[in-house]
Amino acid sequence: MAELVLYSSALFFFIFLTLIVRKIGKKNKKDEETPCNMPHGPRKLPIIGNIHNMLSSLPHRKLRDMALKYGPLMHLQLGEVSTIVISSAECAKELMKTHDINFATRPKVLAIDVVSYNCTNIAFSPYGNYWRQLRKICTLELLSLKRVNSYQPIREEEFTNLVKRIDAHKGSPINLTENVLSTIYTIVSRAAFGKKCKDHDNFISVITKITKVASGFYIGDFFPSAVWLQHITGMRHKLERVHQEADQIMENIVNEHKEAKSKTKDHEREATDLVDVLIQYEDGSKQDFFLTRDNIKAIILDIFGGGGETSSTTIDWAMAEMMKDSRVMKKAQAEVREVFNMKGRVDENYLNELKYLNLVVKETLRLHPPTPLLLPRECGEACEIHGLHIPAKSKVIVNAWAIGRDPNSWTEPERFYPERFIDSNIDYKGRNFEFIPFGAGRRMCPGSTFGFRTIELGLAMLLYHFDWKFPSGMTGEELNMGEVFGITMRRKDDLYLVPSPYHPLPVT
C-alpha cells in the first residue's frame, strides 16, 4: 500500500482523538524534555507531530527532499513515535557499524507482528539469543554459499522454462514483469520446499495481498498506546484474514515434508531443502536449539516473500534501464554472447566472466534498491550520532534510495551509468555505506548472495537468447519509469516487450 493509510474512519479518529488530547498531550510533553542537540526536522503539529509530512505515495522521495533542507540526520515526531531518518553514507556507517549493536533490534509494527507470527521470523525478530540462533541457522544451513550453489540446477531449469515461454510469444508483446516474477517464485519455492508448491499460484496471490496490506505507513503504528485503532480501522481484521490464508498453505507444506520423512529411514533422507532443515529443529534432531511450528512457518514466509520480490523487481528495473539506454543493452548483450556462444548455453558456473553485466546489476541496485527504506531499527540506549542526541526507543529509518543518489558520494547520481563501478571495490555486501541495497551490519539481508546469483543468471538468459524491442513503435523516452512504493519498490507499470529469438533454445 503506497500511501499513508487513513481509511474512511480517519475523520472519526481525529474527532475522537481530540477527546483524549490530555492523555496524548502528556505523552507529547516528552518533547519539552528532549535535549536541545536533537537532529533538526520540520515543525511539528499538535498531537500528530509530523505525520502530515509523510502524506506521499513515494515517502522515500519525500524524505530525501526533507533531508536536503534539514540534513542527512533528521528527526520526525510521528504521533507518539520519535523517528530518526538517515540519508547519508557517513550517518549510515555510524549507525550500522559504530553503534550497530545498539540499533540491532526492530520496532513493533502491527502488520509484521500479525503476519510473521509475533515477529519470530529472521527479518523482524528482536535482537537476542533467538535471533542469533536463527541467523546462525540461516547463514550456515539455509543460505550458505554451499547451499546456494546446490540450487544451481533449479535456477538453470526454471530460467530455461522462462525462455521457452517467451519463445512461444516471439514477435508479440509479452508481459516480462509477470513472467519473471512467476519464475523467481518458482525457483524460491523449489529451493525452499524441494518442489514447486502445489499451491504456487495461491501462495503468490497471498504474498501479493500481504505486501499490499503491510506496505506503507499505518496510522495505528504512530499511536501504539491507542490499541483500539487496530480495530476501528479494520486493519487487524484485514491482516488476520490474509494471514490465515498464508498459514493454511504453509501448514500443508510442513505436513507434506513431515509425512515424507516419516515414510523413510533417518539415514535415507537427508535435509535437501530449507523446510527439511527447519523441521530438524522441531522434531528434536538438533539438540542445541528448538523451533515451534509457528517459528518454522514464519521463516518460510520470510524467505519466500522476500526472496521472490527482491530478485524479480531488480531484474525488471535492469531490463527497463537497458531498454532506455541502447548503448548499455548492446554492450551487455555482446558480453553475454561472447562468453556463452562457444558453450551453446548460459552456464551459471561462468557468470563471474560477465564483468559488465555485474556492473549493470550494481548500478540497478544503486538507483533502484529493492527496499528503498531499509527495514526500521530501534535505538536500544540513548546515544549520539554525529554529535546529535538519539533518544532511546527511537525508530530509525535508513533511506537507502537517497544514499544511492547522494551527489556527495556519486558523480551524476541520477544517471544510469554502469561504468562508474569499473576499477571500484564497492560492492553490495555492507562494507561500503554509500551502496547498501541489502542493508549492512548485523541486520543485513542474509539472502543477498542467493538473490544476486539469481538476478545475474536471469538477466544473462534474457540477453543471450533474445533481442528486445518495444511494442508498437514505442521508444525508450516513452517508457514510464515511475515507482510504486511498498515492501519492495516496483516499477509502476509492468514491462511489455517484444522478443526476437537470437540463439536456439537448449535441446532437451
Distinctive features:
transmembrane; 508 residues; Cytochrome P450; 11 strands; three-stranded antiparallel β-sheet; oxidoreductase; 19 helices; alpha+beta; monooxygenase; Cytochrome p450; 47% helix; globular; oxidoreductase activity, acting on paired donors, with incorporation or reduction of molecular oxygen
**How would you sum up the global shape?**
globular
Name of the CATH architecture? Orthogonal Bundle
- Let me know the largest β-sheet: 4 strands, mixed
Would you list the SSEs in sequence order as H and E? HHHHEEHHHHHEHHHHHHHHEEEEHHEEEE
| Helix content estimate | 40-55%
- Neighbour order of strands in the largest sheet: 1-2-7-4
Structural notes for this entry:
It holds the Pfam family p450. The chain is α+β, with helices and mostly antiparallel strands and 508 residues long. It has one domain (10-501): Cytochrome p450 (Orthogonal Bundle). It has helices at residues 10-18, 21-28, 30-33, 59-70, 89-98, 110-115, 129-142, 145-150, 152-167, 176-193, 200-214, 229-232, 235-262, 274-279, 293-324, 326-340, 355-367, 400-404, 448-465, and strands at 73-78, 81-86, 174-175, 377-378, 383-385, 388-390, 395-398, 466-469, 483-484, 490-491, 496-501. The chain has a 4-stranded mixed beta sheet, with helices on one face. Strands 3-11-8 form a 3-stranded antiparallel beta sheet. Helix 9 (152-167) packs antiparallel against helix 10, helix 13 (235-262) packs across helix 15 and helix 15 (293-324) packs across helix 17 (355-367). It is globular, with a radius of gyration of 23 Å.
